[in-house]
Write a structure and sequence with these properties.
This protein has 337 residues and is of the alpha/beta class. The chain has two domains: 131 residues, ATPase, nucleotide binding domain (Nucleotidyltransferase, domain 5, 2-Layer Sandwich); 170 residues, ATPase, nucleotide binding domain (Nucleotidyltransferase, domain 5), CATH 3.30.420.40. It is built from eleven helices and ten strands. β1 and β2 form a beta hairpin. The longest helix has 27 residues.
Length: 337
């Protein structure tokens, strides 16, 4: 089964063609990161306009690269939630038009479910059940993946997403946007992770829930205090301390949840999964407990359309369909299709 998939939830326009959920025939992407870097973050209106400008050409490119004709497409899958509402609507409306023109089913896909499915592309042997931490710019959850379309959220951030926290810390350190990779590089440049004391919040009664706003605020305050006092800030050590704190918020919760739910396999996904410290700490912790860890390659950690096509295949098999009244939603829990 061949699916053309569309992802426009934020500032990447992406179109892919996949076969039977796991084989990627093409995976096209246009990033707007350089454009939004001028403003220190994503400007929704600019993102939407650029999706509109590029999506048609990108779809043609994806089809040509895959070496198929439009008549071979069996379904169209599209991210419809969560994300920037204007950006999502560009992809949803394009997908509806394509579905109608080709006379094929339209399959709505939840963005977080797509991130989880990125692991299926990277690891053909992986199948549910397993525990997965999805940590990205807009979402941070711990999910018990009981089936390809059966997901239960066991923990979530109560405030900011981990990726949002990374971007804010990078921006205040003068690293620009997007700042995840630059902050990671700075943290590895010889910084002392014990140099700064940063918070690692615990939410009483909810052991798997997380909070990142205090961590973000602490970094901002340290930078501003140094500036106000005219002191030279050890940025490498602050970046290293930040990465350590972030990892120590995430890793123990995921391992503890895996033990409670009896999951021998653990996966992580989303843009924050590209961070070297977090990847290394997850690997070390999983090995110590005898659990198998799955981490997608860097190219599948960020937003892409191949992961939407993969999850779209399993949603299709489960009978998930949408009509021409499909809408987009800025927020929606991942336990919904």
């Amino acid at each position: 089964m061949i699916i053309l998939s569309i992802e426009t939830s934020c500032d990447e326009t992406a179109v892919a063609v996949t076969r039977n959920g796991r084989e990627v025939l093409s995976d096209e992407l246009i990033s707007q990161a350089d454009m939004h870097a001028l403003y220190g973050g994503v400007v929704p209106e600019i993102a939407s306009r650029n999706h509109t400008a590029h999506i048609g050409r990108l779809a043609e490119s994806a089809i040509n690269t895959a070496g198929i004709t439009k008549s071979q497409i069996d379904a169209v899958a599209v991210t419809y939630a969560p994300g920037l509402i204007g950006a999502l609507l560009v992809g949803v409306n394009f997908a509806k038009g394509l579905s109608m023109a080709l006379g094929v089913p339209l399959v709505p896909v939840h963005h977080i479910r797509g991130h989880i499915a990125a692991n299926y592309i990277a690891y053909p042997e992986l199948s549910p059940p397993f525990l997965c931490a999805v940590v990205s710019g807009g979402n941070s959850i711990i999910a018990d993946v009981r089936g390809y379309t059966e997901i239960s959220i066991v923990g979530r951030s109560r405030d900011d997403a981990a990726g949002e926290c990374f971007d804010k810390a990078a921006r205040v350190l003068g690293l620009g946007y997007p700042g995840g990779a630059a902050l990671d590089k700075l943290a590895q440049s010889g910084g002392d992770e014990s140099r700064f004391s940063l918070p690692r919040p615990i939410i009483e009664g909810f052991p798997y829930d997380m909070s990142f706003s205090g961590l973000k605020t602490a970094v901002v305050n340290i930078v501003h205090n140094a500036e106000q006092k005219g002191e030279t800030l050890d940025k490498a050590s602050l970046a290293s301390s930040f990465a350590a704190a972030m990892s120590q918020i995430l890793v123990p919760r995921v391992l503890s949840a895996a033990a409670e739910f009896g999951r021998e396999r653990i996966a992580i996904a989303g843009g924050v999964a590209a961070n070297s410290r977090i990847r290394a700490d997850f690997l070390k912790a999983a090995e110590a407990e005898g659990r198998t860890l799955f981490i997608p390659p860097l190219r599948l950690c960020g937003d892409n359309a191949a992961m939407i096509g993969c999850q779209g295949y399993y949603e299709y098999l489960a009978g998930t369909r949408a009509g021409m009244d499909l809408n987009a939603y800025a927020t929606m829990d991942a336990d919904k299709p």
